[in-house]
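Our preliminary data section would be incomplete without showing what the modeling component actually yields. Below, a chain of 85 amino acids is followed by its predicted structure, encoded as tokens that our downstream tools consume directly.
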Amino acid sequence: MKFEWVEPAPEPRPGEAPPVPAGPAPPSLAESLSRELAAEIEAMNDSLDMMTEIAERAVRAEPADSDLPPESFRPDRFHRPPNSG
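Predicted structure:
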């Protein structure tokens, strides 16, 4: 990476307006935030699309309830015994 020394702009005299830089005006804060927000929303939409696709594949891959043997469902796996203390 190459660095180049740039002379600082001269300070305006009291009562003078600072010099206006040449070239196009920088984007306003609202424009910058709007672009950033649009990029974030696009990224979230892409993530949501990917998660939806993964969920749809998982649903298609799961066997139907009727395909499972009755002993495969064990409610005791989800039941917590009462606290004995």
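Residues 4 and 67 are 71 Å apart (CA to CA). The mean pLDDT is 78. Preliminary results of this kind motivate Aim 1 of the renewal.
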